Give the backbone structure.
Amino acid sequence: MSLRNRFYDAGWLASHRVGATVISIGNLTLGGTGKTPCVEYVARFCQRQGLRVAILSRGYNARNGANDEALLLANNLAGVPHLQGKDRLACARQAIATYNSDVLILDDGFQHRRLARDLDVVLVDATQPWGFGHLFPRGYLREPLPNLKRADFVLLTRSDHVSRGECERLCRQIAYFAPGTPIALTTHRPIELLNAAGRKEAIGLLRGQLALGFCGIGNPEAFRQTLEMLGVRLVDFRTFSDHHRYDQRDIDDLRDWSKRQPECVCVVTTEKDLVKLPLNRLHDKPLWALRIGLHFEKGKQEFEEALLRTARGHSHRRAG
C-alpha cells in the first residue's frame, strides 16, 4: 500500500485528469463515516451554483445496477446522474460525454488515485476515528494515518456524539497528521421521517415513542445513539452487515420480530435500508426511515468557499 502511494506521488503510476472538476469524498477507515449525506450536501451546493453534477462510485454490493447508496441518492437528488463501476475513470469520461458534467463527485474516493481530483475531502468519524490504530484486518484502517496529509479538507463527523474535549483532542490529532489542512465540525442532523410510500412526518413523532430499531450500515451504534438522542424508547435493536441485501427470509424474520411486540410500538430504520425494503409496515407496525442531513457546527463558510474556489478555478481552466 505504501509502495503504491509512493508510485502515485512520484508519478510512476498515472493519475488521469478529465475535463471536469473532480471532488473526492472519502475516509481512512472501513465502515460508515457519513459519506452519503456529505455527497448529497456537496451535490446540492454545486447545483445551486448552476453547475451540472454527476456522482461516481464503485457500486459495492450493487443489485440490478445500483446499490443502496445509489438508490438513496436517486431519491434525494433528482436529475443528478449516478454512475457506478470499478473503472471510475471510465465512468468519469462517460459522465462528461453523456451529461456534459461540470463537477464529478467521487464517492468513497480517497484511495482511488487513478482519477485525479481537484479537492480531496476526508471524513473522520468522531465516534470511531482511527479504526483501532491498525490496518485491516487487525484494525479498520484502509491506509496509515500519516496519509491523511493528502487531504485538502477534513470533516469531523458526528461531533455531537462525543464531548467537546474529545473533539478538541481529535482536531489536534488531525492537525498533527495533516498540518495546515482546514477542519470543519459536523453533525448528522435528523431532518424528517418518511416511509416507502413517500409519506413524511416530523421527527417529533418519535419522542417518547416505543420503537424497534434496525439497520445495515457501517456504524450501527451511531444510528442507535441518534434514536436515543431523539427521545426514542428502544425496545430492541438489530444490526445487519453494511450494505446488507434483505431477502424474503430477512423480511419474514423482521415481521415475526415486530409481531411479538405491543401494538403501540413502531419500527425505525435508515434511509439506506428502506430503499431495499419497499414496505410501509412490518406486520401491523408502521415502518419509518429517519432521513439524515449533514449540518455544520463549525467551518461551513470555509468548506463552501473551498468548494466554490475549486469548481470555479477548474471551470476557468476548462474554458481557457
About this structure: The chain has two domains: 2-182+299-319, 191-292.
